[in-house]
């Protein structure tokens, strides 16, 4: 079992408390107030907003000096910009609103722009993933490791699919043309938090997406790395938390996947 720092303890409390509130809303979906953020396919509910406020309150009590970045509330928190909580209170909002259990709470801690601790909580599945630099990746107290497959043809990959209002639809079509015939399967859960955690747990061999935010990928980066995997940009370059794209894998299929993702950019 991981020996959590005080920061990680606060993150676990924030994720579980926010998740409990979300589960209550999930049981009464018909009564939720929902609105569109940027278009019909980009929705937010009062559940998202309440969950972020809950998580933010827990984290602020623990470390009031740390800065904060949340999907719903933006930038705030304390004056210490070198240490920042990064929170997605409900990753997989569309899944949540349509009754799918594949959604979760993301809480990450970044120091000088590098994620040093992460928590992904998937309440309906009762899965709590935690990781901290040098301490491994853990699911409900059990140590997790990435898969050991090295051939794409034996691998199951996960990805994000651009929806209405998102860019890169032609690029995604080329990715599928280059990959689908050479892998064991390609999946989309609709929640980056779930996909990245499942790479860490060895359920998927890799995951990529081209249009993401720091709060989507924050915890998943360290979950995968501490599980023995690899995290880069989709171009194979060093990962930038704020660059908007990510590719994580077990390491064994990483280079072959990146080669095809880069080829998909060539029309």
Automatic annotation (TrEMBL):
<dbReference type="InterPro" id="IPR000760">
    <property type="entry name" value="Inositol_monophosphatase-like"/>
</dbReference>
<keyword id="KW-0460">Magnesium</keyword>
<feature type="binding site">
    <location>
        <position position="91"/>
    </location>
    <ligand>
        <name>Mg(2+) 1</name>
    </ligand>
</feature>
<dbReference type="GO" id="GO:0007165">
    <property type="term" value="P:signal transduction"/>
</dbReference>
<feature type="binding site">
    <location>
        <position position="88"/>
    </location>
    <ligand>
        <name>Mg(2+) 1</name>
    </ligand>
</feature>
<dbReference type="InterPro" id="IPR022337">
    <property type="entry name" value="Inositol_monophosphatase_SuhB"/>
</dbReference>
<dbReference type="Pfam" id="PF00459">
    <property type="entry name" value="Inositol_P"/>
</dbReference>
<dbReference type="GO" id="GO:0006020">
    <property type="term" value="P:inositol metabolic process"/>
</dbReference>
<comment type="similarity">
    <text>Belongs to the inositol monophosphatase superfamily.</text>
</comment>
<keyword id="KW-0378">Hydrolase</keyword>
<feature type="binding site">
    <location>
        <position position="71"/>
    </location>
    <ligand>
        <name>Mg(2+) 1</name>
    </ligand>
</feature>
<protein>
    <recommendedName>
        <fullName>Inositol-1-monophosphatase</fullName>
        <ecNumber>3.1.3.25</ecNumber>
    </recommendedName>
</protein>
<dbReference type="GO" id="GO:0046872">
    <property type="term" value="F:metal ion binding"/>
</dbReference>
<dbReference type="InterPro" id="IPR033942">
    <property type="entry name" value="IMPase"/>
</dbReference>
<feature type="binding site">
    <location>
        <position position="90"/>
    </location>
    <ligand>
        <name>Mg(2+) 2</name>
    </ligand>
</feature>
<keyword id="KW-0479">Metal-binding</keyword>
<dbReference type="GO" id="GO:0008934">
    <property type="term" value="F:inositol monophosphate 1-phosphatase activity"/>
</dbReference>
<feature type="binding site">
    <location>
        <position position="216"/>
    </location>
    <ligand>
        <name>Mg(2+) 1</name>
    </ligand>
</feature>
């Amino acid at each position: 079992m991981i020996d959590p720092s005080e920061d990680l303890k606060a993150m676990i409390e924030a994720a579980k408390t926010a998740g409990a509130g979300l589960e209550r809303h999930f049981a009464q979906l018909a009564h939720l107030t929902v609105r569109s953020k940027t278009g019909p396919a980009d929705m937010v509910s009062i559940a998202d907003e309440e969950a972020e406020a809950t998580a933010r309150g827990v984290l602020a009590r623990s470390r009031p000096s740390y800065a904060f970045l949340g999907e719903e509330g933006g930038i705030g928190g304390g004056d210490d910009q070198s240490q920042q909580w990064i929170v997605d209170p409900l990753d997989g909002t569309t899944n949540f609103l349509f009754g799918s259990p594949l959604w979760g709470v993301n809480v990450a801690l970044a120091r000088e722009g590098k994620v040093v601790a992460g928590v992904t909580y998937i309440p309906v599945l009762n899965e709590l993933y935690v990781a901290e630099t040098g301490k491994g990746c853990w699911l409900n107290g059990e140590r997790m490791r990435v898969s050991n497959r090295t051939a794409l043809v034996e691998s199951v990959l996960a990805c994000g699919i651009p929806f209405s209002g998102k860019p890169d639809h032609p690029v995604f079509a080329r990715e599928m043309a280059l990959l689908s015939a050479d892998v064991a399967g390609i999946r989309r859960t609709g929640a980056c938090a779930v996909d990245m955690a499942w790479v860490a747990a060895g359920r998927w061999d890799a995951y990529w997406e081209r249009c993401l935010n720091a709060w989507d990928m924050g915890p998943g980066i360290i979950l995968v790395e501490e599980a023995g995997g690899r995290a880069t940009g989709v171009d194979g370059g060093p990962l930038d938390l704020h660059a908007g794209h990510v590719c994580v894998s077990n390491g064994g299929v990483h280079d072959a996947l990146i080669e095809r993702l880069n080829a998909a950019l060539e029309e």
